[in-house]
Amino acid sequence: MQKVFFISDHHFGHKAIIDFESRPFEDADAMNASMIESWNSVVGKNDKVFHLGDFSFLNREKTAHIVAQLNGYKHLILGNHDRGRSRSWWLDVGFDEVSEHPIIYKDFFFLTHEPMYMNKHMPFVNVHGHIHGQKYEGKNYFNVCVEHWDYKPLTFEQIRDSVVVSEEQ
After folding, report:
1. By its UniProt entry, which InterPro entries does this protein fall under (predicted)?
2. What residues pair up with 4 in beta bridges, in sequence order?
């Protein structure tokens, strides 16, 4: 059975992110290798992954090499650092789908790179990235940045169940 996963902000090849976000890696190469391993430890070949932006700072060849190593059907929602490259560039490096705009998933989850304004009456949960180690308060936000989740994509069920539990509290 296919699982659906969510993750964001890998920043493959971005050496400075190690210091910016206190990532536990010696250098960008070690970070890249570890994040590929973490991804593949949970995502199977037939699973689907929504990457919510800021995927790679590397050139076309190196980015394609990383994408090829990652399990699953990969759907990229462009982040602020991805937008300097065209949608076709991202498809050429191996993403199966690329979205320039947010997506509503299962009529309830608003998938974006940057957190969107969500008042308490909004009928959605905003699954987002962009803010790395920070967190927005409230039941309408769910941050899937790699720093919060040991660099592993989260399943739809993990997010859904977390949202349901927080609503019951």
Report:
1. Metallo-depent_PP-like
2. 48
Q: Is 139 exposed, middle or buried (0-12, 13-18, 19+ CB in 10 A)?
A: middle
Full-model pTM: 0.91
The count of domains in the chain is 1
User: What is the Cα gyration radius of the chain?
Assistant: 15
Cβ burial of 64 (10 Å; 0-12, 13-18, 19+) is: middle
C-alpha span between 16 and 23 (Å, rounded): 10
CATH no. for residue 52? 3.60.21.10
**Which tokens hold the place of 16?**
């400075």
CA dist., res. 163 & res. 2, Å (int): 21
What pLDDT, in 10s, does the model give residues 48-81? 999 999 999 999 999 999 999 999 999 999 999 9
